[in-house]
Amino acid sequence: MEHIRLPKVENVKLVDRVSPRRSRVGTLYLTATHSIFVESEAGVRNETWVLHSLVCSVEKQAAAASGCSLLIHCKNFQVLHFVIPRERECHDVHLSLQRLSQPESYVELYCFSYKPNVGEVERRQEWDLLDLKADYSRMGVPNSLWKLSPINRHYKVSDTYPADLFVPESAAPPVIVGSSKFRSRGRFPTLSYYSKDNHAAICRSSQPLSGFSARCLEDEQMLEAILRSNPRSDFMYVVDTRPKLNAIANRAAGKGYENEDNYSNIKFQFIGIENIHVMRNSQQKMLEVCELRSPSMSDFLEGLESSGWLKHIKAVLDAGIFIAKAVAEEAVSVLVHCSDGWDRTAQVCSVACVLLDPYYRTLRGLMVLIERDWVSFGHKFSHRCNHLVGDPKEVSPIIDQFLECVWQLMEQFPCAFEFNERFLIAIHGHIYSCLYGNFIGNNQRERIELGVRERTHSLWSYLWMNRADFINPLYRPDHSQTQGLLRPSTAPYCFKFWRGLYNHFDRGMHPRQSVEDYLQAIQEETQQLHDQLASHKQKIGKLEQEQVWRVTQKTTTLDKSPTAWALGNDLTVANTPQDYTGDFISSSPCQPKAPESSLILLPHDLNQKSEANLSNGSDQESGIADLSCRSPLSEDSTRDPDSDEAAYSAA
Amino acid sequence: MNIKLIKYGVMEFAELIKTPRVDGVVLHRPFLPTVEGTLCLTGHHLILSSRQDNTEELWLLHSNIDSIEKRFVGSLGSIIVKCKDLRVIQLDIPGMEECLNISSSVEALSTLDSVSLMYPFFYRPMFEVIEDGWNSFLPEEVFKDLESMTDEWRLSEVNKDFSVCPSYPPLVAVPKDVDDDTLRKVASFRHSGRFPVLSYYHKKNGMVMMRAGQPLTGTNGRRCKEDEKLINATLRPGKRGYIIDTRTINVAQQAKARGGGFESEANYPQWRRIHKTIERANVLQEGLIKLVEACNDQSHSMDRWLSKLEASNWQTHVKEILTTACLAAQCIDREGASVLVHGTEGTDSTLQVTSLAQIILDPACRTIRGFQGLVEREWLQAGHPFQQRCAQSAFSNNKSRQEAPVFLLFLDCVWQILRQFPCSFEFSESFLVLLFEHAYASQFGTFLGNGAAGRAKLSLPEKTVSLWSWVNRPQELERLTNPLYEANSLVIWPSVAPQSLLLWEGVFLRWNRSSKCLDEAYEEMVHIIEYNKELQNKVNSLRRQLAQLETEDPLLQTP
């Protein structure tokens, strides 16, 4: 609490970025974990909560007559613009938030103090929901070709790798250790995914320390062993996911890539995915485009193009497709690496798994996949997601790109995924929120030292408990789209801008009726109908029996539950006009003062189904449905003092 | 008479068809296996039937062909046929002479000058006409609805012989207090005689939307008291109205030099004029050509795709048109003001705006029948020159300045609203695609001709079948119905943010990518809804059975 210089500021304005006239005035509270804005209009209980750990940057602008502006960018792409009357106060809030949003040590993170109403026994059980060993045995390992190696039990061989690793049956410990010494950070080639059907495997590692001419017999033997673990194949692919130039540059630093001449029967392939710095800048540019105030179509499309974001998404997906096809169609094993093998390698391996195996397209499967390819294999979440104050050059939206690749696939294969877009957005939010321990730290060893299993809650369990919110109504396990390898198109026009994530909080941009919610409601009703059908059948059977036997017994009272079931309001939702005119509208009297609650964003109370509200669901409560029913001559269009006509002629 | 015409037609066509039949032709279509078969040319169709079972694999109207290219590799010739519905197919034709003959015949047959030689004049329906579409949306019937709401308007016959305004229908709704003489004077002050007429009456508050051609003020600021009187007659005492000029102020200023212009503040003090930026026809056509070219680019480069998409400006047009329509709707519904919309002629951008504003405001226009009525009222009877605008599509090299995807842009905008309110439309996307196809090439007469007078001369109701006759049959309606529809009586305000406006894949990427997975998703959605209905019926019938059992049971009836 010592970081809070000012716990409460009154008369703060929360500016609506899209239409400034919808701005609201209220009180801003700073607590140990959240900033809370409470609208002060009588009769409205409207709160906006922002978790400090989600704050990405706080920017104080020069003081103006109306007050001093504070711009808060969040890691979940929410942008809040406060205007604080006095500069002094703004300064204090600014400094407080800057400190609060940049914890210096892990213990400061919210997950270590977050105490939802869950008992200790249940909390422990949360962490048992996912079991990676079970996933490996689902894949069919260990078997006669792959074995579980105890070699990294104490993180001695590679401190960023998990303790449990699968290696080829023929790989003896000296080979593994030798190979690990020839790889960056000791990240030797190890199993990521094994295809039971044809024995092809996806393996991953970091780059070899080959420099210009170095060789390592054990590393060559290691690859040989991987090749032999796929008995029917006489070669394997080695995929370097970096652009060739980057890989060549690494040779000067004693690193580099495999020389085809030194390894027997490998086919070496570069797939140019850019590095974390390029990706960080690209997303930054795209977000600037998303934040433009009333951009023209050209502003938007030009900005999207020059950000390069979709190009990078396509590169990741292309690489995933290459690997998935090698495994599924050629039955050839693939070794994937980049530099350290925890960014691009994680992306590409996990995208390939989503394409290859229907299991990873289920709710549980995606969680397992992230747990395996990202969490256990040491994607540096705390560095990449800026959980603690640290080197800004380490920050990069690598996991965002993976989630977006999954979303792009969902757009092409609407029936193939058990989960919906909300699920991806919920995962994204919590990777950054630090509410759960899953993504704290940079590798398994660090998480054990931090005791996340002992001291924090697990996101997977939370998501699983609320899975009803995350189910895709179009999914059917027996649907043809659900089976086997996905073959997406990678024509550029198949890639779309992910409005649902990057403009998540700009509610006005989203469709006002959701087909998915509609279908979900229908399915719920169908379930109820099933129950009624059964109960009616039972009663009829009983009655018929009674009539036959003339049993003089009164039947139970009729089930009077209504079958006539109405869809929720959200499906007939109306809305309000937005800015169609530029200048004209900013002084138009017709902007309604809609109470809007959807800004409340991060789950401050997990017992509520807050994730569901992260997306369009929260519209219902905003009361906007009433507004468009109002007569056009209602107060909001007549009493407004700004209803000057001058603006029209100016337009 | 009809037989004569057909005979004349057949003779005419016979001269054009040099080779009526070629065997061993191979057809290539996107996402379908190649087919070998016999190619036949008839007066109106290009037909390919495969040898095996003589089924028609391809049945293409010549009028659907936008351009045709020849390629030769040795003696094997290929023609690449690019259609107005944006499909591209390839036919490999053995024999150089055959290929040349086919190609020149198709070229001639697909560019016939005479309207009366078009297929709709030869087409005989193979289906039972339940309701003659030519009588489905008569102005006098539509006016009856208006009369039930207000008595401030009358149906004028001033244009009954098309002498006042050739592009207007014989009957138009005008303010009750304005007589026909006044209308004639106003017509002489408006472009092409298009005096202000009623387009839409907003029942909720009695406000109206009118449309017209630009006023002919010229450089010396001519005025017309009758014009002022006419439009002022639609205002409530003390209220203002809005004039939405679809052109920028600069374009409107320049129009003065050519005798056109806009309403000045001095002469129309009760009206506020707002200028918007909807592009003119030839710019839109250029946009369509560029967009389709971008969609067919095979380079697989993301940068190239995005920059071409941007350069086509198509999405910009969509945004501008939608924004203007929203503004008009906002003035009516939120400001409680009447609106007059015009551009230059009042036959293109004006109609985009007035028809879209009605989609936003009026739930009736979001039904299948209501939408047909809207297209009939605001496009066909309102004088949009379909034949000129839809003569060519995206592939033609013809440099005629008349073509423009004005109607396609309107449909695109409707699709955008449909995407944002997927449960508020009775029709599905396939209805919009169908209208796009038939506007460009059709067996029906609905979209033939230019303007009311031109259409009347063609005697379309007597000589052709209406598209609506075909659509308004149960089996067809079922195909076009949106399974998600729940009548929504509210005004629907779409978002016009660039992030909210999508490329209409159903038209522009239709032939470029397999739609199998999306079709399956649609079927799955239908299945979920159908299954729910089925269960509902079962539960209801069981409930009835239960109730019956209970009443039959004498023991239960005793109190």
Automatic annotation (TrEMBL), chain B:
One of its GO terms (cellular component) is endoplasmic reticulum. It comes from the Eukaryota. GO terms for biological process: negative regulation of autophagy; phosphatidylinositol dephosphorylation. It is a peripheral membrane protein. Pfam families: Myotub-related (PF06602), PH-GRAM_MTMR6-like (PF21098). Keywords: Acetylation, Cell membrane, Cell projection, Coiled coil, Cytoplasm, Endoplasmic reticulum, Membrane. One of its GO terms (molecular function) is protein phosphatase binding. Residues 133-508 form the Myotubularin phosphatase domain. Its main location: membrane. It is found in: Cell projection, Ruffle membrane; Cytoplasm, Perinuclear region; Endoplasmic reticulum. Belongs to the protein-tyrosine phosphatase family. Non-receptor class myotubularin subfamily. PANTHER family: MYOTUBULARIN-RELATED, MYOTUBULARIN-RELATED PROTEIN 9. This is Myotubularin-related protein 9.
